[in-house]
Design goal:
Blueprint (H helix, E strand, L loop, with lengths): L1 E5 L3 H12 L3 E5 L3 H8 L10 H10 L3 E4 L2 H5 L4 E4 L15 H13 L4 E5 L7 H12 L5 E5 L9 H6 L4 E4 L3 H10 L10 E4 L1 H32 L3 H9 L20 H14 L5 H24 L8 E5 L15 H10 L3 E5 L4 H5 L6 E2 L3 H5 L4 E4 L11 H7 L4 E4 L6 H6 L3 E3 L7
Parallel strand pairs: 1-2, 1-4, 2-3, 4-5, 5-6, 7-8, 9-10, 9-12, 10-11, 12-13, 13-14
């Protein structure tokens, strides 16, 4: 099939490349000329493991192309995906769908044949209706069906998630559109990926419900970690104890500094706003957001306490800046709260991240970016591990101790074993585990 992807950002590029890898002909349209030029040259503007290989392979085969010209992109299109940003709107936290509606209007202006227009972007309930109205106003005589097909991609594992999904949710209001979408995803039949056909509004709300539920799991286990510390219990064993229950499951039960990233923060806020607008407030999600925000701010206090109660004139090493490993995404990363709080307490901060330092440089002023973890640790009075990159999982503890001015480590991801760290002579602070 001929597929057009409007937006060559994270979701659009991953989805477009994977569709092309299935054998579809895909054209990605983006208004950013520099990005399009880079993609044509084989340069990938985001870090996602394996994406560069898939893009290169399909571009070489002629199945994946890039353009800034929407008319060119739509010339042969049968299905058009909208994959543009929906950031939180200033002032009220609602998702800003202006880019989605602008894309819909451009699609309608340039449409010359029947199309299925699919929202891949995360959009509030009822956005499909608005898109339908926009298209009807601009191009009333061309049959264009509007479908919701939310993405469920984890950054760092997006290709695996796309090709072997837990489920595919498709919200369509007419049978023809359902048949077209079934054809789009037919290559996944061999994997027996479950396809759930729903109404459009149900699909839109399903995306928000999924992210809010996962954010709730993270926040719940973080609160249990705080309680575990008070009573002398081990949150990792608690997580395993409840996670082995099939009704609960073990994923998203890893205690840490709070969730961040491109989805959970903005989607929970958008769901709260939608729930209030429809007079069905979601008190649980409201509390999750409040608790998570407070948790990120509180993490710096752990570092200050571990360093003796004051950071004035001291150096702190920070390992890991991105909101999770295997991505360069800094959006709502815990480090954006923790590092400034350490600086406000008087610390000089030295940092390292395998992929996120270029993005972090625009967001974290007055920090020293280092070439590796041991360089970051040099002469530091404390080291805080924020993001659990693989490169930090087997550090040479003797080298680390020699680099540090004081052997203090605050591990916000529970990467290391407390007894082993104590045996090495570290003052080791972790999350929700008894001190040794």
């Amino acid at each position: 099939m001929h597929i057009t992807m409007i937006g060559a950002g994270y979701v659009g590029l991953v989805s477009g490349a994977c569709f092309a890898d299935f054998g579809h002909s895909v054209c990605c349209v983006d208004t950013d000329a520099a990005k399009v030029a880079a993609l044509r040259d084989g340069r990938i503007p985001i870090f996602e493991p394996g994406l560069d290989e898939i893009v290169a392979r399909n571009a070489k085969a002629g199945r994946l192309t890039f353009t800034t010209d929407i008319a060119e992109g739509l010339a042969q299109a049968e299905v058009v995906f909208i994959a543009v940003g929906t950031p939180s709107r200033r002032g009220d936290g609602h998702a800003d769908i202006s880019y989605v509606l602008a894309a819909a209007k451009e699609i309608a202006r340039n449409a010359t044949r029947p199309l299925v227009v699919v929202t891949k972007s995360t959009v509030p309930v009822g956005t499909g209706d608005e898109i339908e109205n926009v298209i009807a106003e601009v191009k009333p005589k061309v049959k264009i069906s509007v479908v919701s097909n939310p993405e469920f991609l984890r950054e760092g594992a997006a290709i695996e998630d796309f090709k072997r999904p837990d489920r595919i949710v498709i919200g369509a209001e007419d049978s023809d559109a359902r048949e077209v979408m079934a054809a789009v995803y037919r290559p996944l039949n061999l994997n027996q990926a479950p396809i759930l056909f729903t109404g459009r509004r149900t699909a839109e709300l399903t995306k928000y419900a999924a992210n809010a539920f996962l954010a709730t799991k993270i926040t719940f286990i973080n609160e249990m970690a705080d309680l575990a510390e008070k009573v002398g219990a081990n949150v990792q064993e608690i997580a395993r104890g409840i996670g082995l229950d099939n009704r609960i499951g073990g994923k998203f039960l890893h205690a840490g500094p709070g969730y961040g990233g491109s989805c959970f923060p903005k989607d929970t806020l958008a769901l709260i706003k939608t729930a209030r607008d429809y007079d069905a407030p979601s008190k649980i999600v409201e509390t999750v957001v409040s608790v998570n925000d407070a948790r990120k701010r509180a993490m710096a206090e752990r570092v200050i306490a571990a360093a003796g109660g004051s950071l004035a004139g001291k150096t702190v090493a920070v390992l890991g800046l991105t909101f999770k490993p295997n991505t360069d995404d800094m959006r709502d990363a815990p480090s954006l709260e923790i590092v400034p709080a350490l600086q406000a307490a008087g610390a000089k901060v030295q940092v390292h991240d395998p992929e996120g330092m270029d993005a972090a440089a625009k967001l974290l002023p007055n920090v020293t970016f280092c070439g590796g973890p041991y360089e970051a640790a040099k002469d530091a009075s404390a080291l805080v591990l924020i993001t659990e990159w693989d490169v930090y999982r087997a550090l040479d503890l003797d080298m680390l101790k020699a680099a540090l001015l004081s052997p203090v480590i605050v591990d916000l991801r529970n990467v290391y074993v407390p007894a082993e760290m104590a045996a090495k002579g570290f003052r080791y602070v972790s999350i929700g585990r008894p001190p040794v």
